[in-house]
Each structure stands twice: as structure tokens, then as C-alpha cells.
Write a structure and sequence with these properties.
The chain is built from 6 helices and no strands. It is an all-alpha fold. It has one domain. Helix 2 crosses helix 3, helix 3 packs across helix 6 and helix 5 runs antiparallel to helix 6. The longest helix has about 35 residues. The protein is elongated.
Length: about 170
């Protein structure tokens, strides 16, 4: 009997660890990617080596000024998307948490994580010779993450209202 209980407890711990890995693994991997993207490998000079040929292929008559503008815009949009994905993964991890407090506060925790990662990202960039820290980039990052979090919060609210009204929309 004790042996059976020991096996059941071990299986529950293993399942719990597996669930935590599935829940937080993608989030931690994405945070690692963000840290890697803060290195010189993703500097404007390095990203231009890829963006410039693609733009010249798509738009052969594009001017240097237009190339620079589109490259700048591409980099800002990538900030938005990078942190939108972070917010999505944070929400996914937090709403499936085994801790009720984390589940209830998924929005606040997600936003806190986005802000902290954004600030740490820019801080890390301040040490890379080919990068520069920018509060504007942090603001763009937070806007990307906050947008996703607000969309999910509105979706959750709407779903709750439908559920409370027997599937009908609240007016």
C-alpha cells in the first residue's frame, strides 16, 4: 500500500513538473529569444543586411531614403510583435497556473513582465557596442504587449457576459 502511494505521489510530481514545463517553457524560451535579440546580432546594421536586399528585390526603384524609412519601420514593428508574443505567452502561462492568485492577476502580472523585460532589454542593449538603449523602444514594446493583454481582457469580459446571460450579449 505504501509502495502504491509512493508511485502515485511520484507520478503526480512528474505530471505537475510536466505541466509547469508546458505552461512556462514557451514563455521562458521567448524571454531568452528577446535577450538574444538584444545582442549585436540584431543591430540595425546586421538587420539591414537582410532587409535591404529583400526591399530592393521587391521594389527595384526604391530610393535610399525610402529604404532607410522602411527599415526603421520594420524594426519598430518587430518590437511590437516581439512583445505582443511575450504578452500572449505570459497570459497563456498565467491563466493556466495552479495558483488561483496568479490566474486572477494574469493581466497585471503579464503587464509587469512586459515592462520589466522591455526595460531589461534596453538596459542590456546599452552595453552592446552596435546597439543603443532607447526609452522609445521600451514604449513601443509595452504598447505591443499591452495591446494583446487588453484584447484578451476584453475577450474574457465578453465571454463572461455571454455566459452569465445564457449566451446572449449584454447591452
Amino acid at each position: 500500500m505504501t509502495n502504491r502511494r509512493f508511485r502515485r505521489d511520484a507520478q503526480e510530481r512528474e505530471t505537475s513538473a510536466l505541466h509547469r514545463t508546458r505552461r512556462y517553457g514557451p514563455l521562458l524560451l521567448w524571454i531568452g529569444f528577446i535577450a538574444f535579440a538584444s545582442t549585436g546580432e540584431f543591430s540595425a546594421v546586421n538587420s539591414a543586411r537582410f532587409v535591404r536586399p529583400v526591399l530592393l528585390w521587391l521594389f527595384p526603384g526604391i530610393s535610399e531614403g525610402q529604404l532607410g524609412g522602411i527599415h526603421f519601420l520594420t524594426r519598430k514593428v518587430s518590437h511590437l510583435v516581439e512583445y505582443a508574443i511575450l504578452a500572449f505567452l505570459a497570459r497563456r502561462a498565467f491563466i493556466t497556473s495552479s495558483h488561483a492568485g496568479i490566474q486572477r492577476r494574469w493581466f497585471q502580472l503579464g503587464l509587469l513582465l512586459v515592462v520589466l523585460c522591455s526595460l531589461l532589454d534596453e538596459f542590456q542593449q546599452s552595453f552592446a557596442p552596435s546597439r543603443s538603449a532607447s526609452i522609445v523602444d521600451s514604449i513601443v514594446d509595452v504598447i505591443g504587449g499591452l495591446t494583446v493583454l487588453l484584447i484578451f481582457r476584453a475577450y474574457d469580459k465578453r465571454a463572461r457576459e455571454r455566459g452569465e446571460n445564457g449566451g446572449l450579449r449584454a447591452r
